[in-house]
Amino acid sequence: MGYKIAIAGATGNVGREMLDILAERGFPADEVVALASRRSQGTEVSFGDKTLKVQTMENYDFSDTDICLMSAGGDISKEWSPRIGAKGCVVIDNSSAWRYDSEVPLIVPEVNADAITGFTKKNIIANPNCSTAQLVVALKPLHDHAKIKRIVVSTYQSVSGGGKEAMEELFNQTRAVFVNDPIEPEKFTKRIAFNVIPHIDSFMEDGYTKEEWKVLAETKKMLDPAIKVTCTAVRVPVFIGHSESVNIEFENEITAEEARNILREAPGCLVIDKQEDGGYITPYESAGEDATYISRIREDATVENGLNMWVVSDNLRKGAALNTVQIAEVLVNRGLITPKKAAA
Ligand code: 2RA
């Protein structure tokens, strides 16, 4: 007997990816339901070799659904997740609405799967921001070995993190450059084609952006509150794949070779670090893949016990949809939920 799964936000970049990943990984679902806003009602989305007709959330009764994978934005999640949770359906939410709630576990299975048991308080589990997910996958095994004191992260984030319209804006602006059409930024604050923008999400009082703050708060919640984190988040004209330059200061000694060997064995990590032309990963190559790739691992002689590295992953997969499905797999594999149908 399998589970009944709903995908809320099924027509978005991440929702479609969730459907693909559930099918690819053979998630034990008897039934998968695609949900979205009224605007998308009747739209068709693919699930494996099937086509699903999108239904509206408003008209859907979650009572017999076991898990809702939600990627419908923070405002919708704030309103809907508690209601869905109250129906006994566990929500795994991809927005930032619940990540910092002490009664909601924030989970990357390779990092803190054991914290998942806290989900019963609200029946909600939060998925981290894309830039944090890949970062903590790479940091966790190094922290376990040599204890991280401080990290400096500079992100190079693809436009797909901003949704389908952001991808269209990059495409249209790139075309406009070649045909000499005028360029009017719409979703982005400045031109994104052949440019980089040091601004993602809204500005906060201290001059950091919300995206930068998320990296800090989520790393502390999932990995270790004692780690000092500072971040600069930058949007780059890449369609899929977030990259990060990470400078790490450890409490204890660790060499680049030791780090390489630890990361080679670590869950979710793939080291590509040949220290020669092309012997590293780029975001283009990470698209459609599940791994968190680590390249350019080297010692930083400017601090005691310092390492630098380059971390790349498909932001729609490990940064969002894949991690959400992996959280659902933890619930199932640890026997933390049983299909409602079986109980009936
Ligand atoms: C972005 N972090 O890349 C966001 C998506 N969650 O804009």
Question: Mind explaining what this structure looks like?
Answer:
With 344 residues, the protein is an alpha/beta fold. It has 2 domains: 3-127 and 321-343, Rossmann fold; 131-313, 2-Layer Sandwich (Dihydrodipicolinate Reductase, domain 2). The chain is 32% helix and 24% strand. A 6-stranded parallel β-sheet has the order 5-2-1-6-7-8, sandwiched between helices. Strands 10-9-11-14-13-12 form a 6-stranded mixed β-sheet. It is globular. The model has no long low-confidence stretch (mean pLDDT 97). Residues 129-131, 157, 161-162, 200, 211 line the site of 3-amino-D-alanine (2RA). It comes from Roseibium hamelinense. Its EC number is 1.2.1.11.
Brief rundown of the structure:
This protein is α/β, with parallel strands linked by helices and 344 residues long. The chain folds into 2 domains: 3-127 and 321-343, NAD(P)-binding Rossmann-like Domain (Rossmann fold, 3-Layer(aba) Sandwich), CATH 3.40.50; 131-313, Dihydrodipicolinate Reductase, domain 2, CATH 3.30.360.
Protein topology:
Layout: E1 3-8, H1 13-24, E2 29-36, E3 44-47, E4 50-53, E5 55-56, E6 67-70, H2 74-86, E7 90-93, H3 109-112, E8 124-126, H4 130-146, E9 148-157, H5 164-179, H6 210-222, E10 228-235, E11 242-250, H7 256-265, E12 269-271, H8 283-286, E13 292-300, E14 306-313, H9 317-333, H10 340-343
Parallel strand pairs: 1-2, 1-6, 2-5, 6-7, 7-8, 9-10, 12-13
Antiparallel strand pairs: 3-4, 9-11, 11-14, 13-14
The structure holds 3-amino-D-alanine.
Residues 129-131, 157, 161-162, 200, 211 line the site of 3-amino-D-alanine.
